[in-house]
Amino acid sequence: MKINKIKYTVAAALLSALIAGCTTSPTGRSQFILVSGAEMATLGAQSFSELKQNEKISTDKKTNAYVQCVTDAILEVTPPQPDFDKWEVVVFDSDQVNAFALPGGKIGVYTGLLKVARTQDQLASVIGHEIGHVMANHGSERVSSQVAANSALQITSIALGASGTADADLIMAGLGLGVNVGVLLPFSRTHESESDLIGVRLMNEAGFDPNHSVALWRNMAKASDGAPPEILSTHPSHDTRISDLQAAINELPPPTRKAPDCGRPNLFG
C-alpha cells in the first residue's frame, strides 16, 4: 500500500507538471516546458564559459569582425529575450563545420563553417537558425521532456525499491552537450525545422537574401559526404530542409531594410 501511495503521489505531481508546463513557440507550436528560462540561461552561460576555456578561440580580427557584423544585423531584428539582456558571440578556430547558440544568448561559430557558408547571407542563415533555437526555448523543451521521462522511470524505480538519478547528466544532455563539454548533440527534427523557419524570417527582416539559405544547404549536402537517411537522423534530410525552406521563402514579405556589407575575409576561399 505504501509503494502504491508513493507511485500515485509521483504520478499526480507529474500530471500537474504536464498541465502547468504547456506553452507556445514563436511559430505557434505547443510546447511542454518545466525548466525556467532563467535556469537554462544560467546553465548555458556556465557551459559556454567551459567551452571558451577548452576550445581554441580565433584571434583573427577580420574573421571576428565579419562574424560579429552578420550576427549584429540579425540581432537588430531579434525580439528581446526575457531571461538575459546581452548576446555574446565567439569564433572558435576549428575545422568543424558547425555553429550553435546556447540558452542565455551564447553563440559559437567555428571557422570551418565559413568555408561552407560562402557568403554573408549564407552565414546569416546559420546565425538566424541558431538564434531560433534560443528564441523557441528548445533547450528548455529538451530538458523538460527528459525530466518528465525520468520522473516516469522513478515511479517504476520506487516500485522496485530502486533509487538514484543522474541529474547532472540529464541537464547536460538536455542542453545539447555531451559528456565532454563542447561536443554538441543535435536537436530533434522538429526543433531543427522550426529553427530553419525562424531563422529565414530573421534574415529576411534583417535584409539578407533568404534564398541563400537554400544555397547553404546545397553546400552542406556536398560537404556531408553522404548523410544518413532522414529516418535514422535527428536532423531533416538536406532535400527536406531545402524543400521546406523554399516553401517558407515564398511566403515571406519584402524586406524593409538592407543588410550591411560585412566584408567577408578572402581567407575562406
TrEMBL record:
<dbReference type="Pfam" id="PF01435">
    <property type="entry name" value="Peptidase_M48"/>
</dbReference>
<protein>
    <submittedName>
        <fullName>M48 family metallopeptidase</fullName>
    </submittedName>
</protein>
<dbReference type="InterPro" id="IPR001915">
    <property type="entry name" value="Peptidase_M48"/>
</dbReference>
<keyword id="KW-0479">Metal-binding</keyword>
<keyword id="KW-0862">Zinc</keyword>
<dbReference type="GO" id="GO:0004222">
    <property type="term" value="F:metalloendopeptidase activity"/>
</dbReference>
<dbReference type="GO" id="GO:0016020">
    <property type="term" value="C:membrane"/>
</dbReference>
<feature type="domain" description="Peptidase M48">
    <location>
        <begin position="63"/>
        <end position="247"/>
    </location>
</feature>
<keyword id="KW-0378">Hydrolase</keyword>
<feature type="signal peptide">
    <location>
        <begin position="1"/>
        <end position="22"/>
    </location>
</feature>
<keyword id="KW-0732">Signal</keyword>
<dbReference type="GO" id="GO:0051603">
    <property type="term" value="P:proteolysis involved in protein catabolic process"/>
</dbReference>
<keyword id="KW-0482">Metalloprotease</keyword>
<dbReference type="InterPro" id="IPR051156">
    <property type="entry name" value="Mito/Outer_Membr_Metalloprot"/>
</dbReference>
<keyword id="KW-0645">Protease</keyword>
<comment type="similarity">
    <text>Belongs to the peptidase M48 family.</text>
</comment>
<dbReference type="GO" id="GO:0046872">
    <property type="term" value="F:metal ion binding"/>
</dbReference>
